[in-house]
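tool=predict chain=A
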Amino acid sequence: MWIGLNPSIADESRLDNTLTRIRSFSTVAGFNVFYMVNLFALVSTDLRAMKRHPEPVGKDNDVHIHRIAAQFPTIFVAWGANGRHLDRDREVLGLLAQLGDRISFVLAPTKMGHPSTRSIYQAG
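tool=predict ok
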């Protein structure tokens, strides 16, 4: 399972650059499929529009994240610095903590310590 920032217009049959990279990282990590969820449910290719939206999280997003994460023992996070918008990164990490032991991976951190999409290392 992967947790990104927000959905784009890509889907399972038309991957964008992010999903193409995630597919590659998943393959390198030994997986032949991946499941994608996001901190914010708002579909947007414009980060500014997502940040201006009054409810970018969506009313059922936490329910979906929790339900899906409960099915996967390995979770990758890759939302970058913008994940801190509305403290969403902390909210979702708290949600994941409720599930108990999971093998969590983050991608190489940004300069500010947020998970980016550069390369994989195991979280401590």
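Residues 25 and 120 are 8 Å apart (CA to CA). Residues 120-124 have pLDDT under 50 and may be disordered.
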